[in-house]
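Below: protein 1.
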Amino acid sequence: MAFLEIRGLSKTFPGATALDGVDLSAEGGEVHALVGANGAGKSTLMLVLAGVLSPTAGEIRLAGVPVAFSTPRAAMEAGVSIVYQETSALPEMTVAENIFLGRGGSSTAITCLSTLPPRSAGLPSPASSSSRSRGRSRSPRGS
């Protein structure tokens, strides 16, 4: 039995079907990537899984137990959350600190961050990094 099982998941909006009978299984510790064209339903699937949207049909199971998250908080309490695509990360914070920002109370964030390993001595701290780079790739202009 997979840790995460999605069976027959559908999500419709007025005039559009975003998900139509999606099936997905994932074992604990696996890493998966969703790849598809714009409008294929990748974001909708993640929003349903994280409790932001409710499915129109289908079932989600975690460790064999059916779940139906009515809010992102309910999903987080069950251990499911999304790292949203966000281009305005705080440059003075590490990637991990940005990911955990806003999750739980400040004591929760501090507890989570205190368990992270120290930064590698060979890497610059975010405060000393160039404010222009911020982790985004840049393509040369005019090519």
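Below: protein 2.
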Amino acid sequence: MTKVALLFRGQPRFLENNKSFFSHKNWIIDKYETDIYCHVWWSNNKIMSSSTWSNISTTTFQENDIEYIKKNYNPKKIIVEEPKHFKLSLEEESNISIKHANNIEQLKNIQNCISQMYSSEMVSLLVDDNLIKNYDYIIFSRLDNVIQKIPDLNILEPEYFYLSNLHPRFPDNLYIFNPKYLPMLRTYTDFYNLAISSDYLVAESIYQSSYKKYFNFKDCRQTDDIRTFFLRNL
């Protein structure tokens, strides 16, 4: 049976909606032998941060968020951390501001971008070298992501990196890939260099720069068979 590591990162938004959980259950957890790994930001009853362009209704962390994740997803490994402020050096801030001077809105949201990169790296590190050889595929998602369709993993060509063709800028709604590509999620440690090399100061562009750092872009496959949407309210 195809074995999958399903990775979740970020904030536990709108869990009580259940749509995200049941979509992952129907499309992945019930179809394949699946181990789940999570890095989750959580601080009871505090308001969650969000990018200014996200159009997400104001949301607070709920007391039972982590209990919900553990009960429903039964993660093999989970890290829960309080949201944190990330500091760049004055030189790094200056150089990033110069590089992205035409992207004022993106510069305003740099903390959200770094937070996402940190969460991505932390969850990727949970799948260590002793574990990675156990999996046929890694699927990278988030807890407010509702899957509408994904390809049948049993018939995919396993050597490629699959992502949605929603747009041409490396959409980050859901990735499916051979475990060899896992290092491209380690985007926090090298955030400054990735931010400088990226065309835009947004998560998708940072992921794209990280992928290009490690791998050949010809091995990416954008497909109409990956379709999801992010919950924006209950």
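The chain has a mean pLDDT of 95.
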